[in-house]
Amino acid sequence: MAETSGTQAPPAPRRRVDAGSVATHAVLSLGALVMVFPFLWQLLTALKTLAETSRVPPTFLPDRWNWSSFEEVFTALPFREMLTNSAINTVGRTLGQLVFCSLAAYAFARMRFRGRDVLFALFLSVLMVPSSLLVLPQYDIIQRLGLLNSTPALFLPGMFSAFGTFMLRQFFLALPKELEEAARIDGAGSFRIFRSVMLPLIRPALAALAVITAMWSWNDLLWPLVVNTDPREMPISAGLTSLEGQYETNYPVMMAGSLIASLPMLLVYVFLQRHFVQSVALSGSKS
Amino acid sequence: MRRRTLLGGALAAPLLAACSGGGGGSEGGGRTTLSYGMWDPAQAPGMEKIIAAFEKEHPRISVRIELTPWASYWTTLKTSMRGGTAPDVFWMNAVNFQLYASSGVLEPLSGHIKADATPVDRHPEALVRLYAYRGTQYGLPKDFDTVGLWYNKALFDKAGIAYPDASWTWDDVRDAAAELTNPRERVHGFAAEMDRQGKIYPAVCGAGGYILRDGRSGFGDERSIEGLRFLTDMVDRGWSPPQSAMTESVGRVRYWSEKVAMNYDLSAMAGQMYAVPALKDHGGIAVLPKGRRRATIIHGLANVISAKSRKKEAAWEFVHFMAGRRAAGIQAEAGVTISSYEGTQDAWLKSMPEFDLKNFIDMQEYAVPYPSSENTAVWENLQYPLLGAAFSGKGGVESAARTLGEQMDRALKEESGS
Amino acid sequence: MSVFPATAAAKAKGRGTTAAGSRPRPRKNQRAAYLFIAPLGIGFAVFYFWPLLQTFAFSFTEFGAFGGHTFIGGDNYARVIKDVTVWQALGNTLIYSAIGLTALPIAIVVASLLNRRGLRGVALYRALYFVPFVTLPVAVGLVWNWLYNGDYGLLNEVLGRLGVDRNHWVSDPSTAVYAIGAVMVWSTTGYYLIIFMAGIKGIPRDYHEAAELDGAGALRRFFTITLPLLSPTLFFASIICMINSLQTFDLIYIMMAEKNPAIGDTQSIVGLFYKWAFIENAQGAAAALAFLLMLLIAALTFLQFRLQKRWVHYG
C-alpha cells in the first residue's frame, strides 16, 4: 500500500518537513487510531477463548493467544460456498449499479426531456423509505419469480439504486459543458458522448460508488437471511450470524470468520483506491 | 404396521412428482427430505445424533437442519410461512405458540397422537398444556428449563455463611446478600436483574402473585408487587448492582466472573457455567428460596409441524420419534438441555457430576408454566421500559407495576378483540 | 409540481456561462434520454414502486401475522399520531440527525488533508480510514459498549483522571442518545470520506495551480476553490446523511440491550417500526409509521433542494 503513495503525485515538489505537515500527520494518525481501534478489538477477541470474551472486568489482551478460532470457522460453516455466494452477490449488485445508475444519472443531469423532474423525484423517493418496509413484498416477488434460495435472489433488487443514481448525477452536473458541446459538434451521438467523453470524467465517482456498493452488498444481512434460508445459498454475512445463540454467541469464531471474510474487501479497496488518487485530466480527454 | 402405510402415502406424492411414468416400487430417489428449523447452534450436535438414529429407523426419510440465529428466527419464520418455504418441522416456544396456533399455520397433532399412542403422559403436564390451543395439541415438548439459585461456594466460605438449601426463605437470601456484599472488591450478594423468565416471574409467583390469569394481568396485584419489591429492595440496599450497570455487564457474566455471589438463573446455563473452571470447582445450585410459597418458572421448547408442509406424514414420524424415549435419551447425553421425557434426565445429571443439577428437576413439582397469550410479545414488551427505573434504584416500583398492569390489561383486551 | 427539486438544479445550471447542456434539444434526444433511464426504471418499478404501492395499501388494513388483511381505514395513522412513544422516538431521531450531520465537516477536513500533495503515507491513511467499513457491526457494538461501560470502561478511567464523575453512558437516559450519536458519527465518517475524496479528485488540478501562482494559501484555496467546487458533492452527501440519520436503527439495535433502562430515550422511528412490524405483529400500523416518516424525509429533502441554489455551484 505504501508504495502507491510514492508514485501517486510525481509533480509535487519535495518539500522539507514543515510544521504544517507535522500537524497534518498528527491529526490524521490520531484519527486513524480511532478508526482502526474496533478492528483491532475484533482481532483480539478472535484470539481469546469463548469464556474470556464474557468476563468482568473485561480483558484487553488475551490471557493466552489462541488461534484455534480461525480453524474452527471452516468447520462451523460452509465457508467456501458462502464466500462464493458473497462474491457473486457483490459483483452482481456493483456491476448492476454502475451500469444502470450511470446511464440514468447522465440523462437526469445532462439531458432535457419531459417529466424529468417528476421522474427524478419519484426515483429519489426510493431512498426515503426504510428498506425493511419493502422486505415482505420484495420477498413475494422473488418467490413468484421462483428464485427463493438462489444466488440471483441475493443481488436482484440491489442492482437498482437511487443512491447511486443521485450520487453520479451530482458528479455529472459538476462537469463543465464545453467538452460535451465539442463532441456534439463533432457529430457524436448521445451514447457515444456518454460512454467516451463523460463517463471517463467521473471515474473517481464510479470508483467511490463501486467501493460503497461492494461494501454494502458484502455486509448486507436482513435481505439474504429472509430470502435464502438454505445455508449453502447464504452469503458469509448472513452465515456468520448462525453463530449467535439465544443465550451465548461464539464471538471468537464469529470475529475470526469476519476477519477472514473482510480480507477480499480490503483488497478490492486497495485496488480501487488508485482511482481516487489520480486526478481527472481534462486536457487528456479532449483529444 | 400402520406406520408403514401412512409413510407410503406420504412418499407417494413426491415420488410421482419426481419420476413421472416410473414403474413404481423403485428403490432409488424415494427419499423424503424434511427440513428441521431450529436456532441454537449449541444443540445442533445433539440434534444431528437424534436425526441419525431416526434415519436408521426410517431409511426413506432424511432430515436436514436449518439453523437460523435466534435474533432473526421468528422474523424469518414468519416470512417463509408466507412463501411456503418454512421448514416442515420446527422449534416453537411458549411466547409465540398461541399466535401460530390461532392463525392456523400449525398442523393439529391430537389425531396422530391418539393413533400412534405417542407417550405424551411421560412429559410434564404443565409443559404439554403450554402447547395446546383450544383443546387441540399442536406441539410436543422436547426439553424443559427451570430456574434455580446459583451460588458461589468460595464467596460463601469467605463470608462464613452456610450454603443455601431447600429450607431457605427470602429472609435467608436477604441476610446472606447483605453479608456477601463487599463494595471494596466490587462483589455483590445478589443480582436482582430485570429479567422476566429468570427473576421477575419467579419472584412474583413466589410472593403468591401471578402474571396472567383468566386473561387479566396480575401486575397490579399486591402480592405481585411484593415479589417485585423483593428484587428492587436488593438494588436499593446496594446488595445488587442496579439495572443500569447490569445492562452493561449482565448478572450471569458477573456471576461467573465471581462478582456476584447468588444469582437466579436457568438450568439451560449449566453447560456454560460448567465450562468456567472456577464454577466447576465451587459453583453451587439450590432450589429457589421460599417466599410466601414455593415457585419457579418452567418453560420448554416443542416440535411443531407446519400446516403448509407437503410432507406431513413423514414430518409426524419425526415429531413422534422426537417425543419418544430414545430421542430424549440422546438429547440428555448431549448435556445441553433437560429432556422433558420422564426418567431420561439421568444422562444429563451425569454429564456434569460436580453440579447439583437434580434440584432443577425436583422443582417441577411446584413449577409455574411460562405465562403466554395470543400476542404475548406485545405485553411482554411493556415490562422493561416501565420497570427499568425501579430496577435502577430510582424507586416507584408500586406505581410502575400498577401502570404495567393497566397497560397489559389494555393489550390483552385488544388481543382478544381482534 | 413543475417546480420540483431538479428544476432548481437545472436553473442553477442555466445561469452558467453557456447553457448548452440544457438547451432544448430535438425529439431524438428525448427518446435517447428515456432509453438511458429505462433499465433503472424497470428495476425500480418491479422491486420498489410496486412493493411500495402494495405496502401503502396495507397501511390502511390490519394484517394477519401470516397474511390476510381487513380494511380499517385511517385507524393505523390515527394510532401512530396518538402514540406518545412515536413522538418520543421522533425527538430522538431528530437528535440523531443533528449529531449525524457533524460527520460531514469532519469528513471534508480529513478528505482535504488526505489530498495534500507530497504527504507521505497518504495511501496508508486512506486504507486505515476505510477499516470501519470492514469491521463487523457486532464488533463495533461490543467495543463501544466496552469503552462506555460504567464499571469497567476505558472512557470512565480516562475521564476519571480529568475529574469527571463516573457514568453509565449508554444506560443513563440523559446521556445514552449522545453516546450512540457519537458512535454513529464514527461509523459514517469513513463513508462520506470516500465520497468527498472522489469529489475533490474531480476538481481539476489546474484550478489549484492557478490559484497557487496567484499566491493563495492552503486555507484560502480550500474556501475559494475546494469548497465551492465540491458543493454538488456536499449537497448530495448532506441529503444522504440526513436521510440515513433519520432512518437510524442498526447501531441502536446492536448497542442497546432490551433491558436497558434508557431504551425509550434512544429508540428511533425505524426502531419502533421494526418492533411493531416484526415483533408485535402490527404490520399495518408499522407501515403507516414508515409512510409518515417518508413524508417527513420528503419534505426535508424538498426544502434542501429549494435551498441549494443559494450555495451549490454546478459546472
Automatic annotation (TrEMBL), chain A:
Keywords, comma-separated and alphabetical: Cell membrane, Membrane, Transmembrane, Transmembrane helix, Transport
InterPro entries in alphabetical order: MetI-like, MetI-like_sf
Entry's localization field: Cell membrane
Residues annotated as domain ABC transmembrane type-1: 83-272
Transmembrane segments: 22-41, 87-109, 118-136, 156-176, 197-218, 251-272
Major subcellular location class: membrane
Cited Pfam families: BPD_transp_1 (PF00528)
Record carries keyword Transmembrane helix: yes
Source species, domain of life: Bacteria
Topology in the lipid bilayer: Multi-pass membrane protein
Stated family: Belongs to the binding-protein-dependent transport system permease family.
Protein name in UniProt: Sugar ABC transporter permease
Organism: Streptomyces alfalfae
Lineage: Bacteria, Bacillati, Actinomycetota, Actinomycetes, Kitasatosporales
TrEMBL record, chain B:
Record key words, sorted: Signal, Transport
Main location: other
Pfam families membership: SBP_bac_1
InterPro entries (alphabetical): Bact_solute-bd_prot1, SBP
Compartment(s) of residence: Cell envelope
UniProt signal peptide: 1-17
Keyword presence, Zinc: no
CDD domains: PBP2_TMBP_like
Similarity comment: family membership: Belongs to the bacterial solute-binding protein 1 family.
Protein name: Sugar ABC transporter substrate-binding protein
Lineage: Bacteria, Bacillati, Actinomycetota, Actinomycetes, Kitasatosporales
TrEMBL record, chain C:
Biased composition (Low complexity): 1-21
Membrane topology annotation: Multi-pass membrane protein
InterPro entries: ABC_transporter_permease, MetI-like, MetI-like_sf
Main location: membrane
Location of the ABC transmembrane type-1 domain: 89-304
Gene3D superfamilies to which the protein is assigned, alphabetical: MetI-like
Top-level taxon in the UniProt lineage: Bacteria
Subcellular localization(s) per the UniProt record: Cell membrane
Chain spans, region Disordered: 1-25
Keywords assigned by UniProt, alphabetized: Cell membrane, Membrane, Transmembrane, Transmembrane helix, Transport
UniProt KW Membrane keyword: yes
CDD domains: TM_PBP2
Similarity annotation: Belongs to the binding-protein-dependent transport system permease family.
Protein name: Sugar ABC transporter permease
Organism: Streptomyces alfalfae
